[in-house]
Amino acid sequence: MTAFLDNPLMLSALMAGLSAAIVGGSVGTFVVVRRISFISGSISHSVLAGIGLFLWLERCYGFPAVSPLWGALLAAVASALFIAHAERTFKQREDSVIATVWAAGMALGIVLIAKTPGYTAELSNVLIGNILWVSRQDVILLTSLAGASMLFIAVKFQQLKLLVFDVEEAKLQGIPVNRLYSELLVLIAITVVALTQVVGIVLVMTMLTLPQLLAGLFCQRLSLMILWSVIISMACTTAGLAIAYFLDWPAGASIALVSIALYIIGMGTKQTVLKLKKV
After folding, report:
1. What is the SS3 string spanning 182-212?
2. Rounded to 5 degrees, what are φ and ψ at 206?
3. Domain locations in the chain?
4. Is 215 within 8 Å of 21 (Cβ atoms)?
5. Which of 231, 242, 245, 265 lies closest to 24 in space, CA to CA?
6. Within its chain, how far is the Cα of 198 from the centroid?
C-alpha cells in the first residue's frame, strides 16, 4: 500500500483502475448473463477508429487538443447504436453486424494512425493499455463514467434483469425492450472505454468477462453476482498493479493474468466442491 500512497503515478493508476473495475464488474455481469461478449469485443475494437480520428484531426488540422479518451467514447457509443439499429432495422444476423463493426473500427483506426504525422505512442497505449500514465482528467472522466453507469443500473435494475433473463416477459410488462437494449449496449460502450484505459483493447474482454464468470460460479442471484464481480475486479486490479510495480511487468497484462489465475482457481474449487457433495 505504501507504493501506491508514495507514488503519484501509482495512486492515479489505482484510482483509475478501481473506477474501471466498478463499472466493468457491474456492466460485465449483464454481458455474461446476456451472452453478448462478442458484441462487446466488436465495440472495443471500434475504439481504435475514434482515437485515430482525434489524433489525426489534432496533428493535421490543429483540432483542439483533448484526451483521445473522448474519441474512444465517441466511437464506442456510435458502434453500440449502430449494432442495435442494424439488428432491429435491417434484420441482419448478429454475427454479421459484429464482424462489420469489428473490421471497420480496426481498419479505419489503422489508416488514420498511419496518416498521422509524428510518433503515435497512443496506439501502443490503446492496444495494450498504459494505466500508469493516466492524467488527472482521465481519472475524473473514468470516475464520472463509473458513477453514471452505477446510477443507470440502480435505476433500471429490474428492467435490465428481465431483459437478460426473459425478454418475452419484459415485453408483456410493457418494457420498451428495443430501447432498453440500445441503452445497455451504450452502457457497454462506456465500460469498454473505461477498461481500454486500464488493460487496452487486446485485454478488454478479460476484465469484462472473467471476474463475472468467477462470481457466477458461486452466485445464483443477479444482484449478488454484480456485487462479487465488482469486488473481484477491484481485487484483480489492485493485485495486478502491485505485481506490475514490484516485478516491472506491464500493468494491463498483470491485471489480466491475475483475473485468469483466479478464474482457473475458482473453476477447480467449484469442481472439488461438487465432487465432495456427491460423496
Report:
1. HHHHHHHHHHHHHHHHHHCHHHHHHHHHHHH
2. -60, -50
3. 2-271
4. no
5. 231
6. 9
Count the neighbouring beta carbons within 10 Å of the beta carbon of residue 237: 31
Residue 259: exposure state from Cβ atoms within 10 A (0-12, 13-18, ≥19): buried
User: Distance from CA of residue 272 to its chain's centroid?
Assistant: 31
Which residue in this structure is represented by grid cell 478464474?
A: 263
pLDDT digits 0-9 by tens, 45-78: 898 899 888 888 888 887 776 677 788 889 999 9
Which tens digit of pLDDT belongs to each residue from 195-242? 887 778 877 888 899 999 999 999 889 999 999 999 999 999 999 999
State in words which class domain 2-271 has. Answer: mainly alpha
Write the CB contacts of 192 (distance below 8 Å, at least 6 apart in sequence).
40, 43, 44, 47, 76, 204, 208
Please tell me the pTM assigned to this model.
0.88
